[in-house]
Amino acid sequence: MMGANPRLTLKTRLKAWWEGYDPEDLGARLHGDAEAEDEPDSPPAEEAPAEDEDALVPDADLPDDPWNKEKIEIAQYIWGDGYCGPGGPEQIIAMSKLLALSPEMSMVEIGAGLGGPARTLVEEFGVWMTGYERSERLVIAGNVLSKMAGMAKKAILEPYDPESPEPFDRKFDRAFAKEALFTIDNKDQILANIYESLKPDCLFLITDYVAGEQISDGRKLADWVAGERIRPCLVDAEELAKAVTKAGFAIRVNEDISDQYIELISRAWAGADKVAQKLIHEPNGEGLVTTLLKEAEFWSRRTELLRSGDLRAWRLLAYKKDNTGKTMSDW
Fold first, then answer.
1. Angle (deg, nearest 10), helices 258-269 and 285-308
2. Cα–Cα distance between 241 and 163 in angstroms, integer?
3. Helix, strand or coil, per DSSP, at residue 208
4. Per-position b or e across 284-309, b if 16+ CB within 10 A of its CB
5. Gap between the Cα atoms of 196 and 248, Å rounded
6. What sections of the chain are H helices per DSSP?
7. Which pLDDT tens digit goes with each residue over 151-182?
């Protein structure tokens, strides 16, 4: 509850996130402070809807598809065209060099989002991409973007149920799961499906969120779980690696990339105040700014947990052994 604390303007809310404070706590810090980053004592009346405290509280019941037109638009303002999470083309290309991709290969991606990573890999390596995404709205929007980019046949997005036991209907040379497994309860099933979809002697790259080794603040972690778009089904890094090997894969790379993700998130949101000032002048500007504020708090919660160590970002590189006993040559 804000109580007698002063209302926070748009710029101040975004600045609170950027400097690592909770917006709810910042009101007390600013109480009686005449130097509130040159913001007026009372915001203009037309800004009030964007500052409604109730509008910033995560929905108690998550919808089947948490993405809508406004969230898709805001995501691309923050992360870049075709992206809806950390890592743009440069990071995707650098990370995917581990996969030794070529134009003769096909690749399956789990958690394809808007298809930005898939189109980046098509453009850079010529690989044929099929992305699976649980949000049908992201699939529809992503396929439109692929068509506009001239990649309708090489960067295809399809909807899927990650909890389904149904296997994929074709074989691939490579696989990529981008921050998707942590939202899937039956990890054994999806990993088994991916294993079966890969040709022998092929690689599987995973980036994901995992629980820290020791939870320092269980309440904050619980609040984060309640505020996520899709309810997280967290395991720790050791449990994730065990699930991957149980599916039949051998692990080549197993590393903590939390610092890298904190930097990617912070860099992407650094200009959020400028984005807000641009959005307010667009049709439905107030609604877009409200969505921007919700997204800022969404990523603030993730970043705070990454910084505390209660949540970690992780990368695994696994490979499927050849049935004949042959293994990949060193690379």
1. 160
2. 19
3. strand
4. ebebbbbbbbbbbbbbbbbbbbbeeb
5. 10
6. 10-18, 23-30, 69-79, 89-96, 116-125, 136-148, 187-197, 218-227, 237-246, 258-269, 272-279, 285-308
7. 999 999 999 999 888 889 899 999 999 999 99
Which tokens in the block code for residue 180? 């998707």
Cα angle: 63, vertex 53, 68; to 5 degrees: 30
Alpha carbon distance 132, 283 (integer Å): 32
**Which regions of the chain carry the CATH code 3.40.50.150?**
69-263+308-320
* Of residues 52, 46, 6, the one with CA closest to residue 26: 6
Give the type of residue at 138.
Answer: L
Identify which of 197, 183, 177, 190 has the alpha carbon closest to the alpha carbon of residue 317.
177
DSSP letter at 309 equals T
69-263+308-320 has which CATH code?
Answer: 3.40.50.150
Residue range 190-240, pLDDT digits in tens: 999 999 999 999 999 999 999 998 777 778 888 888 889 999 999 999 999
* pTM of structure: 0.79
**Residues whose CB falls within 8 Å of the CB of residue 107, separated by 6 or more in sequence, listed in order:** 99, 101, 121, 127, 128, 129, 130, 172, 173, 174, 175, 176
Q: CB of 102 within 8 A of CB of 202?
A: no
Helices 272-279 and 10-18, packing angle to 10 deg: 160
Rounded to 5 degrees, what are φ and ψ at 300? -65, -45
Residue given tokens 């075709």 in the structure block: 82
> Which DSSP string do the residues of 189-204 spell out, in sequence order?
HHHHHHHHHEEEEEEE
> Which residues are within 8 A (CB) of 302 and not within 5 positions of it... i.e. 6 or more apart?
209, 224, 265, 311
